[in-house]
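Hello,

I think I submitted the zinc ion job twice by accident. Can you confirm which output corresponds to this input? Input:
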Amino acid sequence: MTTKEGIILIDTIYPYNSEALILGGMQKLGLDPKNIKYVLISHAHADHIGGAEMLQTRYKPRIVMGGPDWEWVEKYPDRYKTMAPKRDIVATDAMKITLGGRTLTIWLTPGHTPGTMSYTFTVLDRGKPVNVAYSGGTAFNFVNNTPDPGIKNFQTYIDSQKHMAEKAAAANATVLLSNHSEFDNAVNKNRMLAGRGKAPHPYEIGADSVQRYFQVMQGCARAAQLRLEQRAAEGIP
Ligand SMILES: [Zn+2]
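Support: Only one job matched these inputs. Its output is below.
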């Protein structure tokens, strides 16, 4: 997100490609990485936190991450070698990051990892304000194959989807972004953008479709949770 006082960067991809893709990509867009003031890490997996240490060392932005994910990074320094930023801002639910008159609100959505963050914010599309819901944790990559702790983990995930669906509705979000772009059809939408003409922005899918994303995520999690509940009822660990 660009503002007149600097840039808020969301996620930092892998350690091996963050330099080429983030710094190279920004230069291509005419943006100076020196202007990055905040880096938000949606969760502490290598494909999101990978470039955080590099950015923190070079450009000294503030780094924001969920409390449990800061703890995780500090607990496993070897696993996060070359990735781990020094502890900085610990996100709380409804925390606002404000820069240059623009505001992004953080929502805690544990599940994908215990510290996963999602966001609501407003962007300008050809001068028109458009509200975005950014879902920080698409995919069930937590322990999900045994009733204990799978049933509990799915419940955490479901509760977070409900929480974020409410915040997306309150913000009148008409754009849904996932932190994994294969889940929001980003590649096709980016291609569509080239031939957009006077049509709406391809990312603008409408408030109902944004809500459907969160319903589908809840439904999928509930189906997987039911399977574990059945297993537990049959006495299979
Ligand atoms: Zn992840």
